[in-house]
Specification:
By secondary structure, this protein is α+β, with helices and mostly antiparallel strands. The chain is built from 6 helices and 5 strands, in the order αααβαβαβαββ. Helix 5 (126-141) packs across helix 6. It is elongated.
């Protein structure tokens, strides 16, 4: 019995030694690999990221709201297009009003027209969003006929009512320059891709 016990102890000792050696080798390999890894943030510290020239980013005015002082300012504001409260009805996922209907919607969703500009409306009030939309339509028309608007699904809104989403879509349906809109990706109702009227040659920016 004593010999058997001694044999067992020897076997256990060998196994423990082998396990310790294996652990040490693994730790050494891990240290070596960590030393060879590139610090991406450090390597990219001097690199200037490319800017997306097609992203429309309107400047945010954080100053207090002031009354208009001049007639010129009032006239400029009158050029903006606004819609009122549309009630509780939720606008459709797709919309077209130029007689092409399904063809326009299908082309929008398939990427037939290149998206020449996009804008993200998260964080804007309803009035601010409409101001940005007016500017975005003009920005897009100077570059093409198709743009993309991110308005969010509205799941974080009070009562889970998509306030900004509904506003944007009602605004697009009523705007005279918007021919159609459609959700660009199945299952994502947080954005719409829009089709605009083409500028006449004499309306193009020189």
């Amino acid at each position: 019995m004593s010999n058997d016990f001694q044999s067992v102890l020897k076997t256990l000792g060998k196994q423990a030694k082998q396990a310790a050696e294996a652990k040490a080798e693994a730790e050494a390999a891990a240290r070596k690999q960590a030393a060879q890894q590139v610090d991406f943030a450090k390597e990219m510290a001097g690199v200037t990221p490319l800017k997306n020239s097609n992203r429309y980013a309107p400047p945010r005015d954080v100053s207090p709201i002031k009354p208009r002082k001049t007639q010129a300012e009032a006239l400029a504001a009158e050029d903006y297009f606004y819609v009122g409260d549309g009630g509780t009805d939720e606008p459709p996922a797709t919309f077209s009003k130029n007689g092409q209907g399904k063809n326009d919607i299908r082309r929008l969703q398939s990427g037939h027209w290149p998206v020449v500009a996009d804008v993200d409306l998260h964080g804007y009030t309803q009035e601010e969003a409409q101001q940005v939309l007016n500017e975005f339509i003009e920005f897009t028309k100077k570059r093409g006929v198709c743009g993309e608007i991110v308005h969010g699904s509205g799941l974080g809104s009070s009562g889970y009512k998509p306030v900004l989403k509904n506003l944007v879509r009602r605004w697009l349906m009523a705007h005279p320059d918007v021919l159609a809109y459609a959700e660009p990706r199945p299952g994502n109702d947080g954005a719409v891709r829009i089709l605009l009227k083409r500028n006449r040659p004499w309306e193009q920016e020189s």
